Amino acid sequence: MADFKSGFVTIIGRTNVGKSTLINLLVGEKVAAIANKVQTTRTAIKGIVNRQNSQIIFTDTPGIHKPKHKLNETMVETSFTSLKDADIVLFLIEATSEKIGKGDSRIIEKLKEANQKTILIINKIDLVKKEKLLDLIEQYRTQYHFEAVIPISALQEKYKDVILDEIEKHLKPGPAYYDIEEYTDQTVRQLAEETIREKALKLLQDEVPHGIYIEVEKMNLRKNKQNQDIYDIEATIYCMRESHKGIIIGKNGEMLKKIGRLARIDMEENFGLKVNLKTWVKVRENWLDNPNIVDKFKLK
User: Fold this and answer.
1) Where in the sequence of the chain do the CATH 3.40.50.300 domains occur?
2) Looking at the predicted structure, is the pLDDT value of residue 75 above 70?
3) Alpha-carbon Rg of the chain, whole angstroms?
4) What is the largest CA-CA distance in the chain?
5) Which residues pair with 166 in a beta bridge?
6) How is the chain split among helix, strand and coil, in percent rounded to 5?
7) What contacts 28, CB < 8 A, 6 or more positions away?
8) pTM higher than 0.70, yes or no?
9) 188-297 is a CATH 2.60.40.1840 domain
């Protein structure tokens, strides 16, 4: 098709501004973990949107924050590296900001270095008055030339086509890089790990910090007695301290069961088949600074 367009779009912003919520809205499927806390996304996750005349490949990046250890450094490096390969950048900020803070200023500097077409998305507009919003837009317009400024609430479906239409306007003619049936380049194993981690983060609140990561040890597709496809998945939740292990397991194993149950329900919905999930918890101290583990989170 002569007028078919395609391109790669990176979503960048500070931690907890709603990037994962936005990519899930745009893709229409759950490809990124969402939890109401910082640093939910650790790797660059791709989501694919297939439209009648275009294919848009989104990369949801880790939030920009001040690194405290090797993992944080890797996450921030991943976010900024993804800018160089983007055809278009979506820069997501919060409408509740009074002014351009240090984190957003740093992102603007990186945008200037990359010199990519950028659309400014202002999220959570339902929380501020129009005058404040206009003032914020003016502040950002003086700092960088944006192709467009789109105020949104990422939880509302009505903004989906507004953003996708704007992106499509700036894409160049190109092929479909992925099969039109696909909506993410993540493997089923990665999706399973992300799902378990999301449920753990949501349920544990602030009791256990972000010192957990998930490894799917075994994954087997088989037929059950009713001849239905079923995934047998065995996963380990790694944490940094023995005290954290006790919290994750919970009294009589109740917390771990709850994490597993909610993760299984999500997986069955996403994978479209039955899931038999078994989870364990193990302690692995100081993994945040272990290069062999942290390298898993680098942009590939």
Assistant:
1) 5-173
2) no
3) 20
4) 65
5) none
6) 40, 25, 35
7) 49, 160, 183
8) no
9) no
Q: Where in the chain is the domain with CATH 3.30.300.20?
A: 188-297
Tokens of 213: 């990561």
Helices of type H across 9-129: 19-27, 70-84, 102-114
Please say whether the beta carbons of 73 and 67 come within 8 A.
yes
Terminal Cα-to-Cα distance of the chain (whole angstroms): 30
Whole-number Å distance between alpha carbons of 266 and 199: 9
Architecture of domain 5-173: 3-Layer(aba) Sandwich (3.40)
Crossing angle, helix 254-271 and helix 242-249, to 10 degrees? 70
Instruction: Name residue 88's beta-bridge partners.
Output: 9, 117
DSSP state of 207: S
Query: Which is nearest to 214 in space by CA: 188, 189, 185, 246?
Result: 189
Cα–Cα distance, 19 to 35 (Å, whole number): 11
Kindly report, residue by residue over 242-270, the tens digit of the pLDDT.
Answer: 888 989 999 999 999 999 999 999 888 87
What does DSSP assign to residue 36?
S
Amino acid at position 204, single letter: L
Q: If pLDDT is split at 50, 70 and 90, which confidence band does 41 have?
A: very low
